[in-house]
Amino acid sequence: MKAFMTNGTIDFLLKLDEKHKDIPFHFMTSNSNGLAYYEGNKKSVFSAGREYDILIEKGDILDDGYVVMNNIPVIEDGQASFEARFKKRGNDLDMMPGFQAFRFLKPRKGNTYVVFTQWQSEQDFENWKNSEQFKQSHKGQATKPPAYYADKPFITTYHMFDKE
Known about the structure:
The chain is an alpha+beta fold and 164 residues long.
């Protein structure tokens, strides 16, 4: 399964719904722009967008909630180690109150992986970040970034867009 996303103004992105009625898009907004996201096995409908392989999937992405995307650039030689670390990592994330969905996304082009989580609210995400489960899932990470990082990871956050 693949994931596809593209950015733009929310008004522009909403036109995708009219043009591709068979695709279940998820629309999101941030302070700076909008994002359209969908999952499938066919070719992307975006003329300018990003395509990912879904390596780990938990939960269903819902039309309401708060999305956090941890964007992690990884050097080519470090990708196998990085993926293995995620796949063997015990994750109690889905047991946290407010958890909705998780995706571990590998880029089809480029080097920036995306760790996608969706929560019922921003407060639910903050509760996860301050939890013992979060500390356990991130233990053993050095204060120095791992050698496989190509650049400094960065986070983008979105609220699901209500079309009504």
